[in-house]
Specification:
single chain; At1g16640 B3 domain; 2 domains; six-stranded mixed sheet; 4 helices
């Protein structure tokens, strides 16, 4: 069984890569010796416009990375769309462990409240990831915050936490 052979090698996040190098990050849950992909899985459905089911073949490449081959419910191969550069669907915001996360969060924390510079509070998931490097992934309402604030790739966000130890909230400032 896959989880018996490779379960220890897979961290909390896996990367699924199709034939055109489009990437999909998925949160990995390990329950009773089984491996499940959870958060991020829906991006596949939306990207390939899967409406009534499909067959997915995953080829383990090592290091938490899987090759991805898709067939529709009639077993016909589904071609991967070509984008230049290839699309990358990440699980939300990443915060560094060294120098920030190690002081701001408990490694087993699963939720965090983001407070923006307008005082709005956003309930988010928090996942500690060790591969390929130690960091925290912030999910949940992060995507709603990005949409509400109309953030774009490359914009700067300053992240702060209380100086007196592990936080239940982090504070965000958006640079103009």
């Amino acid at each position: 069984m896959f989880s018996d052979d490779f379960g220890e090698e897979i961290g909390r996040v896996a990367s699924l890569v199709d034939s055109k190098e489009n990437q999909f990050e998925c949160l990995v849950e390990k329950i009773n010796g089984n491996v499940y992909f959870t958060l991020g899985w829906g991006a596949l459905r939306d990207f390939y416009d899967i409406r009534f089911g499909a067959w997915l073949m995953l080829l383990y490449m090592g290091g938490g990375q899987f090759g991805l081959i898709l067939h529709d419910r009639f077993h016909q191969h589904v071609d991967s769309p070509l984008f230049t550069p290839p699309m990358k669907f990440a699980i939300d915001m990443m915060l560094p462990y060294d120098g920030f996360g190690e002081y701001a969060f408990e490694e087993d924390a699963t939720t965090i409240k983001l407070v923006d510079d307008c005082g709005n509070k956003w309930n988010c998931t928090l996942v500690y990831v060790t591969f390929p490097f130690k960091h925290f992934k912030v999910g949940g309402e992060w995507s709603r915050l990005v949409a509400a604030r109309r953030l774009a790739v490359g914009e700067s966000v300053t992240v702060g936490a209380q100086a007196n130890g592990h936080s239940q909230a982090i504070y965000l400032l958006f640079d103009p």
